[in-house]
Structure formats: structure tokens, C-alpha cells
Amino acid sequence: MPTAKDVRQAFDDATDLGEVGRIVRVAARERTGAQGATFVIREEGRCFYADEDAIAPLWKGQRFPLTACISGWAMLNDETAIVPDIEVDDRIPIEAYRPTFVRSLLMVPVGSPEPVAAIGAYWSKRRRPGDDEVERLEELASLTATAVKRIGLRDAPWAPNFGERRATPA
Predict the structure, then answer these.
(1) Which residues are within 8 A (CB) of 105 and not within 5 positions of it... i.e. 6 or more apart?
(2) DSSP single-letter state for residue 130
(3) pLDDT at 153
(4) Is the dihedral of CA 90, 91, 93, 99 positive or negative?
(5) Is the peptide bond preceding residue 113 cis, with omega within 30 degrees of 0?
(6) Which end of the chain is more exposed for a tag (fewer CB within 10 A), N or C?
(7) Residue 162 pLDDT
């Protein structure tokens, strides 16, 4: 498992948000033992599932209203969401989760007091993440917030008008 120092160095070396997403998805799985991890960006009133690393495809590349998903809940409330059983948590859009392997999850906001992203960890069994897993994912979120603040969100390759901005001469 990479140490916080290793992750911090990787973020310090990152030059764009795509690199940050790759670091997040790998570190989140390694630091929690999860079977899936995602990096979600806040785009105005939506959540954009920018990157993921999972045992099966989830929502990478998709956008959902902030109010319609657990990553949005974590960002809107600036609070970690611990979901030991997706079937019994009202914050979970169950129809989106039932076809997937996900049965429990942990979602942490990135950036406080106004989160700009979220990091999720997913498991295929119903379980309550341990305090150590929660702490490690929250620490990763803190490191991620620093990298995102340094790099910014405007020039992400997945931003809606990224190609238009690139095509404009400086």
C-alpha cells in the first residue's frame, strides 16, 4: 500500500486532472482494499464520474444530478457517507446500483468547506468499512484537494468545452 508520502509525491508530480484521477482511483483501492474506486468531479449541478478502477464497469464518463447520487450527497453535505448496505440506505439510487457488483460503499468529499469532487470506494459484499479505511480515504481526499487546487478544474480533458478552449489561440 502506498504511504501518504508516496501519494503526496505523485500528486506533486501531476500536471493535469487526468493524472490526479489516475492516482486517486489506484490509491483509493489500494488504501481501502476496495473492489472498486471512483473519482467524481462536481460540475455545477452535476456529478461527473471522471475516472474509476473496478472489477466491473460502473459509471465512468457519466453525469448525474448532484441530488441524485451518493457522491453528490457527500459533496452537498461536505460529509463522508458510509453505506454498509446499499439496499437500506435512502441516499442510494438503488436502480442504478442493483445491476452492479456494489453492495456497500464509502464516499468522501474532496475540498472543504465547498467540495469540488468526491472519492468513492466500493465493495461487493455488505460490510461496514473500518475506521482505518475511512481515515485513509479521507486522508486521500485531503491530498487530492491540494492537488486539485494547484492544478484547477477548468482544463480537465473531460470538461464540456475542453476542445473549444484548446482550439482558441493564446
Answers:
(1) 70, 81, 83, 86, 120, 121, 122, 123
(2) P
(3) 80
(4) negative
(5) yes
(6) C
(7) 41
Cell 484537494 appears where? 145
pLDDT confidence of residue 156: 64
132 near 121, Cβ under 8 Å?
no
What's the mean pLDDT when you consider all of the chain?
90
In total, how many domains does the chain have?
Answer: 1
Written as nine digits, the cell of 151 is 492544478
Q: Convert the pLDDT of each residue in 94-111 to its tens digit.
A: 999 999 999 999 999 999
| Residue 15 lies in domain | 4-167
Q: How far is CA 41 from CA 71, 90, 98, in A?
A: 9, 22, 23
Give the global pTM: 0.90
C-alpha cell at 68: 441524485
The tens digit of pLDDT for each residue in 126-161 reads 999 999 999 999 999 999 999 999 998 876 665 554
Structural contact between residues 64 and 72, judged by C-beta atoms closer than 8 angstroms: yes
Q: In whole angstroms, what is the distance from residue 94 CA to residue 97 CA?
A: 5
CA 10 to CA 20: how far, in whole Å? 8
